[in-house]
Every structure is written in structure tokens, then in C-alpha cells.
Amino acid sequence: GHPPAPAASQVGTTCGYCGVGCALIVHTSSGCIDQITPDRAGPVNRGHACVKGRFAYAFATSGDRLTTPLIRRGERLEPVGWDEALRLVAERLKGVVDRHGPDAVAAICSARATNEENYLMQKLMRAVIGTNNVDNCSRICHAPSAAGLTAAFGLAGGTNPAEDIERADCILVAGANPTEAHPVIGARILQQALSGAGLIVIDPRRTTLAKIANVHLAGAPGSNVAIFNGLARVMLEHGWVDADFLARRAAGLDALREQLAWFTPQRVADVSGVAPDALLAAARLYATAMFPSIIYGLGVTEHTHGTDGVRTLANLAILRGAVGTGRGGGVNPLRGQNNVQGASDMGALPDQLPGYQPVADPRAQARCEQVWGCGLPARPGLRIPDMFDAALDGRLRALWVFGENIAQTDPDSSHVRAALDACEFVVCQEIFLTDTALAADVVLPGASFLEKDGTFVNFDRRFQRVRSALAPPGLARTDFHIIASVALALGADLGCPTPADALDECGRVAPLFAGISHSRLDRDGPLHWPCRSPDDPGQARLHLDSFATPDGRAQLAARPWLPPGELPDSRYPFVLITGRRLAHYNAGTMTRRTPNLLLSPHETLDVHPADARTLGFGEGDRVEVRSRRGALTATARLTTDVSVGQVFLAFHFPEVATNVLTSAAVDEATSCPEYKITAVCLRPC
Ligand code: SF4
């Protein structure tokens, strides 16, 4: 059974939607939610919440929640008890390991689930199955942030807390639309700009923030590295840099200068369409501010050169000396999902153990082996896109998908579905019968964030408590309970009876989190990592004395601009950009089952009126969108928020299966897909 719902009618928890990490109070009576209110004591939201966190909770009590395990019998998924489902999962996983070895099994962890659940899942895969084939959806969103920020500063997290937005006298927002995707942070940026801070937006679309920005650089999709390098060159040419900081705390200036010789304002304009005077204005505004802050999103990372985008964006903060100073500023990625930072922190990565320790590092390995009491594989495992390729060529036989609807959210959906079909055995752990669950052999009914106990880590590295306000419906179990049960069915005890025990154990294997525990969070409130001991207050601002790089210096990156993986041509002349809308969240599995559906009942294709006129369709007309991989139809919405030659779609609705269009081209460093550029053609239906 699952833990009983608490008797208290008000439970403090953390929002399970985006990575802002708003503190919420869930008001319940008789086991039902009456309302959710934002917590005034929440350090990130301070009494605010958006239309998702505050109102979109009806999904938890939706009549179509999964309430019992399901097993495939022919074409049908049939309800069974837990014993039968767990026995089957264990038998099939063991069978694959016996016949093909441990690396024929892989797991995709969940950025929606708690840290403790992700910790347990990666431990099961490594310590029980014996493979590093474990990854999470940061692979398809912010893996370039982890790689780029680690290379630049030495740690895979944003450098400054949300509070520093209020210290900033200039905010540079690149490739992010926080007004819709991270509304509480979007509102804070807007307020800061309205109170006089400079605002620079680098985005191909005219987002809400772009419309009020002092400078909007609407560069062509795929031109980020050229723009960031162009800004760096202007800053150096005008002496708008912190020479003392560069001399004391940075490395790589000579190589950068050499690289920047190519990036004349005219060349940057040729690549990006950004006029030289706009580039100059943006560079001046950023570099002459006292406390300039950089906030960026998936428009920087989801490119074939996404890691280069992060590195060259970080260059600006290093040149300006606006990182690691304690005065604000910094370089901060807006994480998409509630716990995408935490899933990576917990080691749900194929090459890193908990706390970003390389799997082949003998000291980290020894620490885990000692605590876990077993030998561990040292060879890095498969990344998510590689899992699909491995399934198609027979190297991967069994896939466990935990709380991710990969059939809808991952790029080139036909490829993903073919990979799922090619696996001998697919387990899906979910709260609804998603497209991915429908393709599984066994479906295990999990719990929503409102029904579980643990922690999330938000976008600014803050561990916050998640507390159960409801019991999971029917036979559904918390994911923590499910993972532990599968381990027991495989003959292994994962050794963490409760989520609090799991976080304590994580602190023993990962020094970055050694000082964080449920009891401390309950007593003292949220804590930022690194937090290395019970009396360490945690570090809201990173790199104050020295950067965590091998030489202690911030590393400037000399990177060329390279064209994107996919370009428009005469057959596919438009560029499709994908992203999110205010009322919905990711695959829409949760928000479409709430009143938010009334606010935004279907997806639209955003297209510039001039393009619609040329092609002969109008507002509300149905339009076929076709890429080199697939086609869909959507209703046109005419708006100048997109430029001529560009269109926009979100991916919240399965009936507008946006990812049948997107390509499998990936960032060369991290395998993050190029969601932001797909060449398409349009045709009125
Ligand atoms: Fe939840 Fe994000 Fe909205 Fe805050 S901004 S309430 S974390 S969805």
C-alpha cells in the first residue's frame, strides 16, 4: 500500500510543472483538492504562481488516471495485479540480461519525478542491472548547458539565484520566452525592465519581452554563435571588458581574440540578419551595465551547435567580469521541467554518477561501490538518441521509460516509434495511457507530484521539498515504491526504505549534496547546491573565490559559427521553430486534463500575414505543414510575432504531432536535438 494522505488540510509543496520551482500550498478536504495557492514564503515565487501551477491540477483526479498495472496480451493492454506485473518485468529484464548482457537494457528517467526516485532508478540500473544506459530528458533540452557551463565555469548549474534578477541593471534574455514558459520568472524580468533595467532580447520571435526590450536582436534561427561572437568582438574593440577580471580570473583570451577576427559586424549581419548598429547597441547596453545578468533557454541549447551557443554566451559574462563576483549577474539557464536539474544532479546520465562524477573516475566509482556494496560498470552508457538507434540495430532489447512521453516529445517521432516497436520489451511507468504507454508491454501506474514525498531541484540549483497531499488513485504507487519493488522482484534490495533515506545515501556518494537532507530542508527551508556538510549554508552564488575548473579560472571559448544541421531550400522554404505556450506544459498530458484547455483549446500554426497572403490562406484556415520526415495539419494564426519565412508550433497536442516534423540532427557535443530549426513547406488544405 501507499502512505496515507496526510490529515492536514494544507500541505506545502513545490510546483510540478516548470523549473522555476514555485512553492505552493495544496488545500485539501476529504482527500480532494479544494485549491492550490502560491506560498508567500516561497523564495522564488514570493506569493505568485502562474496559470499552470495554480489552476492546472485537475489532472490528478482525472477519471482516466492509470489505477492498475497493465500487461500486453496481443493488441490489448489488460489490467493485472502488482505481483504479476512485477514478476513479468523482472523475468523479461533478467532474460534480456542473460541472453544479451546488461548493456541490452536501458532506462529513461523522469525530469518530472523527484530526486529520490531518479537516484533510486539510476542505482537500480547501475548496481542491479549492471549498465550505465540511463539518461533523462535534459538530453533533449539542457545537456548543452551542463556541458557548456561545466567547461566554462566548472559546474553544471546556473551561476546565480533568481533573487539576483532584482539586482540586475541589465538583463540579456537569449532564446527564451519566460513570459509563457516560466511565467513567474518572466514577470520578474518584466518588472525589473519596467523599473528601469536595460533589457536585451536575442530571439527570432517577437516575444512579449522582445516587444518591450531596449534592443531586440531577431537573428535568424541557427545564428546564435555568430551573434554572441559578434557581441564579444564589439565589447573587446570598445574596451567594454573587465581587464582586471580577465587577468586574474579568466583563461583563453588570446585564442578568443584570434577567433573573433572573423566576426566583423558585417559578417555577423550576413549570417544572422542582425544590423551592425543593433549589435553595437546591445553590446554597449550589456557591457556598460554595473550588474548585467544573462538568462537563457532552449533557443540557445536545442541546436546542432547548442554547446557552442552556451560557451560563446558565457564568454560575454566572462569578458564583462559579471560572473562569480557575488554582485549579481551571471549566466543562468531556465530549466524547462520541474526537476530536470535534479534528474541530472542525481546521476540519471550515462556518463556521470550522482553529483556529476564521471563514471570512469576511480575515486567516485569506489565511493559508490562502497556505499552500494557492489561493482559498477565503468564504460559510459547510451544517450537517449543513441538508445533509439541501438534498438533499431538490435544492440538494445529492453527499454524502461519512466514518466516521459517520448513518442510525442522526442524529435522525429516516426523514428522513436520504430525504436519502441523494435525493442523486445518496453516498460512504461506513467500516470496516463500516453502514446508511449500504448506502445509498452507493461504499464506501471505511478503517482503525480501531488501524491509523493521527496525533493525537486529548480533552475537555480535549489533543493525544495515535495510533499504528498493526496493518495495515488486505485493501485497506483509512488514511483519510489515502484522502482524499489522492481528491484526486489529482481532479487535486490536498494537499501533506501524512504525517500529521506535515499537523499541521505545520495549525499554519501555525491559530495556536492552531502549537507542536504529532508530534515534540514523541513527545518531550514530550501538549500542551494553545492552544500557539502550539515553546517554548509549552500551556495546561491557560485564561483566567488575561484571557478571550479582545473586551473580555477573561467574558460573563454574560441568557437567558430557553423551552419545548422538543417537548412531551408526551394522545396522546404520555411523554418519551423518549436516551443511552449502559456496555458500548457510539454506533451500536455497534464494540462489538457484541466480547465487550462478552455484557455487554449488547440494548437495553432503561427505564421506571418505576408507569408499567408503569398500562399493564399487566412486566419483560421487549415494548413498542411510538411518536413523532410513527415506532415501534419494545423489551424493558421496570423501574427507578426514570427518573422517572414518562419513559423511556430508548440508540441502540447497529440493531434498536432509537431515532432513528426522535427529532425534527428543533434548537438555534436551532447546529442541534444535541433528542435529549433526544421525546414518545412506550407500548403493550404
Ligand atoms: Fe509552476 Fe512554473 Fe508556473 Fe511557478 S512558473 S507556478 S513553477 S509552472
From TrEMBL:
Any one of the GO CC terms = membrane
Q: Which organism is it from?
A: Catellatospora bangladeshensis
Q: From the entire protein, which fragment is shown?
A: 200 to 884 of 884
Q: Which residues form the 4Fe-4S Mo/W bis-MGD-type domain?
A: 8-64
User: Does this UniProt record's set of keywords contain Metal-binding?
Assistant: yes
The organism's place on the tree of life at top rank: Bacteria
Cofactor needs: [2Fe-2S] cluster
Q: Name one GO biological process term.
A: ATP synthesis coupled electron transport
Protein name per its UniProtKB record? Formate dehydrogenase subunit alpha
Q: Which family does it belong to?
A: In the C-terminal section; belongs to the prokaryotic molybdopterin-containing oxidoreductase family.
A single MF term (Gene Ontology): 4 iron, 4 sulfur cluster binding
Per UniProt, the keywords (alphabetical) are: 4Fe-4S, Iron, Iron-sulfur, Metal-binding, Oxidoreductase, Repeat
